[in-house]
Amino acid sequence: MTYDDIAVALIVGNWKMNTTVNSAIMLANAVKFQIEDQFRHEVVVCPPYVSLHSVSETLRGSNIAVGAQNMHSETNGAVTGEISAEMLSQICQYVIVGHSERRTYFSESDLFINWKLLAALSADITPILCVGENLQDRDSGLAHDMVSSQLEANLNGMDLDSKIVIAYEPVWAIGTGQSASPEIA
User: Fold this and answer.
1) pLDDT digits (tens, 9 = 90+) for 95-135
2) Whose CA, among 40, 63, 86, 163, lies 20 to 30 Å from 9?
3) Known catalytic membership, residue 169
4) Catalytic residue among 101, 108, 133, 169
5) Active-site choice (99, 101, 108, 133)
6) Backbone CA torsion sign across 35, 11, 114, 101
């Protein structure tokens, strides 16, 4: 197998709650300079909400896509502090859904994640669905069952032709210095 035989990968950078608007623009320019027209894989950057529009404008015309870090399942309404897929659709091509931090810190259920996926798809945004197991599930031999359960619940009712990116994110490896080998992934 040669490098040319390998499928094009999607590389996503989640900037989390880092960067100001100005530093996000500088970072977007640096990423654009480093990889534009030289990188064969598709690249997506997911800056904080306050920087989405500025980063989107900075990267306009480049081969780098912009994604949001989260969204709500509702299209509008009294949901203070949230943002809908429709609101994102003019500046984002992707949105992260089901991130382990959202599942853990905000108790986002598989059903709610399913609703978010449906909302993203209806707004023509490609969702990046994060799935993965924690250390307890891994050590108990339940990793496969946990990920399968998440996929089944999150993708319930989806059209098989839906454009959804699945990102395996082993929760036990986040911020621990441990990594999932290709065999585990």
Assistant:
1) 999 999 999 999 999 999 999 999 999 999 999 999 998 88
2) 86
3) yes
4) 169
5) 99
6) negative
